[in-house]
Structures are given as C-alpha cells and as structure tokens.
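Late entry, written up from scratch paper. The run itself happened at the end of the previous shift, but nothing got recorded in the book at the time, so transcribing now.
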Amino acid sequence: MKILVVNAGSSSLKYQLFDTADYTVLAKGICERIGDAVGILDHKNLLKATRTKESMVIPTHTDAIRLVIKTLTDPELGVISDMGEIGAVGHRIVHGGYYFSESVLVTEEVIAKLEQCYDFAPLHTGAHLQAIYGCREVMPDVPGVLVFDTAFHQTMPPEAYMYGLSYDMYRDYHIRRYGAHGTSHRYVSGEMIKLMGGKAEGTKIVTCHIGNGSSISAVKDGKILDTSMGFTPLAGVLMGTRCGDIDPAIVPYIMKKKGFTPDEVDKYMNKQCGYIGLTEGYSSDSRDLEDVIAEGPSNPRYEQCKLAVDMLKHQIKKFIGGYAAIMNGLDAVVFTAGLGENNPRLRWIVCEDMEYYGIKLDPAQNLKAFRQPDIIKISAPDSKVLVYVIPTDEEKVICMDTERLAGAKA
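Output as recorded:
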C-alpha cells in the first residue's frame, strides 16, 4: 500500500509518500506560502534523487492537495502513475483535546469532534481541517486517518494532568495538561524499549524532544506518566521563542506594564521569549548561540547566549530528576529532535554532574552522534543509565497507524 502523510500548517502543507512494503519514503516535499500572492512547491523525488522547486499561486489547502497529487503523478517529477495508487492519507493533528486518545479513521462524526478542538490550537487545527476537507474533495474515495500529537499523553493519571484551578475550569472548559510531540515521544520510547529487549513492562524512560519547540516525557511501562508541555505547547522548558514555565502572576503584571491585550501577551510569550528574547532578538537558533559561546567572552553576546543555553540545561536536568522520582527509577534517557539529535554540547552539559542517577556519557560517542541519521548509544560502558540519541520519525508512526486503520477498513 502507498500512503500519503500530510502535515498541514497555517500557510504550509508538508507531505511524504510511503510504500508500506518496507516503509520507504518515495517522495516528500512542502507547499509553502499558501494563500499568499506567490507560493512555493519544494518537491523531492527520492527514487530519482531529484529536487524541484517552483513558484506559483497556491490559494488554499485544497489547491495544495491538488498540486501534490499532480506532482506525485507527473511523468517526470512523480513516483506513481495515477492517484489510484494512493491507498490512504494520514494526517498529523496537533491537538485532539479530550475527545481523542488514539488514532481514528476520518468520518463526519470525527470531523465534528475535531472542530470542537479548534480553540485548543486555532492556528494548527484550522489548517488541519482545511487539509482534511481538501483531501476529501480531491480524493473522496480514499480513506483518511487522523494521528494526534496529544493522544499518547492520554495515559497520564489525574494527578499529572490536572491543574490546581477550581474544578469547574476542568469540567466546563476542559482545562488540563494535554502535552505535545506525543507522536515523537511514542516513536523514540518504542525504539528504546526495543533496544532494551522489547518488553515495555518494567521500563522507566525519559524522552527529551528538544528542538525549537521542546518537551520532555516520563514513559513508564511504555506509557506516558507525565510530560512537560501543558494545556498548550507554551509550557515546559525554555524554547526558541517560547518562555516555558513561568509564575502565572507574571502574565497580568506584564499586561498592566505593557498595556498588552490577551492576544498580545499570548503572542509575546510564544514568539518573543525563549532564546530570541533572552538574547534581545539575536537568534532563536541553538546553532547561532553555540557559535557565540564557542568564541568565548570576547564576543559581546557571549553572556546572554550562555545564559540562555544554561537555563535550558538546568531545566532539562530538573525534569529528568523529577521524572526519575515519580517513576521510582531510571533506565534510559533518550535525546531526539533538532537540538537533541544535533547538539552534542547541550547533551553533554545536561548529562554531566548526574552521577547520582548513574548517568555517564562517552565523550567520543556523544560527538559521533552529531548530525547522524542513525540510533547511537552515547552513554559510557559503566553508566548505570542508558543514554541514546534516537532520530525521531513521526511520519513513519502516522504511516503505520494509517496502514493499520485503513487496512482494517478495507
């Protein structure tokens, strides 16, 4: 079966076409600037090792879906002869609210429930819905599957997902911890369990998805016990442009001082804080900060950049230690995503001075894992806790769930 995996953003649509015979990716790409005067299609044919980038008008997500199908079936650019070769479409969905605890086939009832989740992630959910509508219009007979980033976190106990607000906030408005990056945490924890023998029961793993957006999860017996992101992806550790956890009283204080509206303070905390805020607009990219740190104190940005990275290191350590406490032990720590996979210095400073937990890195292995696509063990031979870099593959998870559900339907 060939499965199209779609990840729709507010003005973009990423896609990958899988062959489930061996889960190879035949083609991948992105439609950008949807709705703008000029859009962009960036398409890669992985069978021919070619890449095509074109500018064109892409008015809507439905038009983007049409463009993707046209490109995939193009005699020169494509990898399939016609749309009929696509057996199913898998959609990445950021937020399933309290409705969805597992992946589901697309039905009218499911779409209606997803529409009820709009307020939880308006920028994301609106785009997801547009992509779903577009696929149903362009490919009406092809089954669709929704795979939710929040679903893997639904195993959290109430003491982990509830907030200390009045109970009516949970009952009437469903305010609770939902988490994010669940598809990534699910994938890398599953791979770690395989490395530990394949039996989930009895395992205690901390998964660190560290990128421009970051979240950390406690995975016990193969299930989420707690996670750092909360009601929205703003919570948890410091990120590229997000502040992470703060005293909630700071929010009205800032609003009064700056005269911000609720929407303005929300934008401030999500877009103008974290790395970009602490470096006073210099960069939200870890690589830029690491370059400055490598130059040393002679660089005028050194103190700010080092502070930002040290803050992230400090916070990740706290989550690892706290999660080891609630799991009553720790077998493995996994690093994944952009920074987790590609920033050896961050991994090193997170794991140093963690002897109490039995964590010890192998310096050579840690450096070897820099920009490698492979799973690499970076803990020392005498480390009591395993430490691995496992590249995440959320699209493969979406593909496999889609194959399972769409195949069952067929």
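The first helix runs from residue 61 to 72.
(Scratch paper discarded after transcription.)
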